[in-house]
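HUMAN: Now follow token order:
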Amino acid sequence: MKLLHIDSSVLGPHSVSRQVSAAAVERLRQANPGLVVTYRDLTQTPLGHLTGLHLAAGQGAAPDPSVRDDVAAGQLVLEEFLAADTVVIGAPMYNFTIPSQLKVWIDRILVAGKTFKYGPAGVEGLAGSKRVIIAISRGGYYGAGTPMAALEHLETYLRGVFGFIGVTNLEFIPADGIQVGPEHREKAVAGALQAAGSLNAA
């Protein structure tokens, strides 16, 4: 069984999403002794934003020398995702949505013919066999009925993205209100870590 662990926070050891994603991976590692884990830190090994040269290479053109290495890195990212049975992602909210580092990674895994395809009935996701667990951290409260609900473009976006490629086994571990105050942060982190440590083994 293979697990892909992705982190995207720029805060290093101060990151809540990193703490929670690590706890989720450790829980699954303990429950599955033979688990093979691949780790990718999107801030330490950043991918380039897509350009026309990237898209041309994706259509079969020889990669321009200026993007050759990045195109190869993007192919490796896609292969890591396709090979994984389980994916654990640390995803903080930055300015109401995902970090740009995570968006670049998503751009490399949403590939027609690999993770989705179009047919007579419309789009068909091809990654439905995967389990995806996402540790999200938000500075405030964005749940339904809250004053900030309309600005929640983190969880809603990720639900849409993974639903598009067919993932139905999608789990979120939220830590909300971490910037509201120390007590809120402590409670949010403790709750998220408890949820991570209680994940089903498979």
Summary: The chain has one domain: 2-197. Strands lie at 2-7, 36-41, 86-92, 116-119, 122-125, 131-138, 169-176. The two ends are 10 Å apart (CA to CA).
